Amino acid sequence: MKKLQAITGMKDLLPGDSPVWQYLENTIRSVLQSYGYREIRFPILEQTELFKRGIGEATDIVEKEMYTFEDRNGDMLTLRPEGTASCVRACEQHQMLFDRGILTQKLWYTGPMFRHEKPQKGRLRQFHQFGVEAFGFKGPDVDAELLQMTASLWKKLGILDVVSLQLNSLGNAAARKAHRQALIAYFEQHVDQLDDDSKRRLHTNPLRIFDSKVDSTRSLFDKAPMLNEYLDDESKEHFDALLKLLDELGVNYTIDPLLVRGLDYYSNTVFEWVTDKLGSQGTICGGGRYDSLVEQLGGKPTSAIGFGMGVERLILMLTELNLVPEQVQQQLDVYILAVGDVKADAMKLGQELRDSVEGLRVQVHGGAGNFRAQMKKADRSGASIALVLGEDEVSRGVVAVKYLREEREQQTLTKQELFSVFN
Prior knowledge:
alpha+beta, BirA Bifunctional Protein, domain 2, Rossmann fold, eight-stranded mixed sheet, 15 helices, 16 strands, 36% helix
C-alpha cells in the first residue's frame, strides 16, 4: 500500500520546531498589542467572489494561484490566499467600521494562507502570515506608526540590521489610470522585448511588469514612465508628510519608484521590508494603503492601511542567523523518575509542582525502566532538573534532586524545600 504523505508545498510542523514558532508568534503578538492592536479571527474559506473583487481578477493570485472549488451547494469557495479582503468582509458584516459615523479599528490576525505556487525556499503553498489592518485613519501618522511598529519588532528579534525598508506612493485612482495608459503606450512600442508574462499583463495589469526578473524586460524600466511623475498634489503631500515623520522617528528607508506590490487594491503608500539573507524570497513584510477597498466590497468610503508578514521567512532568518534564544529550545523543566511502586506518588508530586509554580513544565516518567534507564530519558528530555522518587524517599517524605545542566551536587529536600527551589 502506498504511503500517504503531506501535499506538496504543505509542511508538517514537528514538535522539535514548534518552540521557535511559539517564540516568534509570542514576540509578534506582544509588539502588536503594545501598540493597541486587537486580534480578529475569520474563516479559512470564503466566497470566491470576495477575492476576485478585492484582490483583482487580473492579478496572478486570482488568475493562477487560488485554491477554488465548488461545494455541494453549488457555491464557489476559495481557501484564503491573503487576509485583508477577509478582514474587510468581517468588519463590514459585523458593522465594525460605521455606527452613525466612521469608527477607527486597529486589528491583527494570524493563520495559514493558500496559494498554488511552485514550492521553494521561503515559498510554500500553505504558508502562515501575521496581518495588521488599521481602518478610519486618513493621515500619514498611522502609516508611520505601522513602520515604526515593524522596526520595533525587527529590533526585538535582532534582525533590524539585516532588513531594509523600501517605500513608494501609488497615488490616487486618477493618477494610476493616467500612468497606466502611459505605461501601456510605452511597452507597446517595445513589445518584442517583453517576456511572456509581461505580454500577458500588458493590457490587464501593466504595473506588474515591473515585477519581472527577465533581463530583456528589465532593460526597458529606465526609460519607462514612472508613477511619481503622475502623482496628484494630495498624494504628494501625504507621502512627503510620511517621510518627514519617519525621519523624525529615526526609521530608515529607501524610496523605490518601481515598488508596486501585487494586489489591485493598493493606493498611495506602499512598502516592503526586504533582506538579502533569504535569496530570491527577500520580502519578509509588505503592505500599504487601500483606501478604496471597503467601498469596493460594498461598504462606505473608509481610509485603510495594513501589511502582512511571512512567518516561515522570519523563522528561516532567525534560525539561519542563529538568533533564536537558547532557552527557547528547552521544552521541559523537570523530569520525575518513579523508581519502584511509587507511580501514583510521582504523578501527585508532578501535579503539586504544576499547581504551585505557574508555567513549570513537568514530565513524569511513563512506563517501566530501572533507575539508569530512567536517568537516560531524563537527560535526553532536555529538562534542567531530575527528581528521583523511590520507595525510600516516599517513606521519608523527601525527594532527591539531580541538576542535569549544572555542576551542582545532588540534594535531598522535603517537598516544602523543593517548592522553594522553583519560587
